[in-house]
Amino acid sequence: MLEFRCEDWVPLSHRLIEHGRRVCGARKTSCSLCPLEDLCPRIGV
Question: Environment class of residue 24 by beta-carbon count within 10 Å: exposed (0-12), middle (13-18) or buried (19+)?
Answer without folding.
Answer: middle
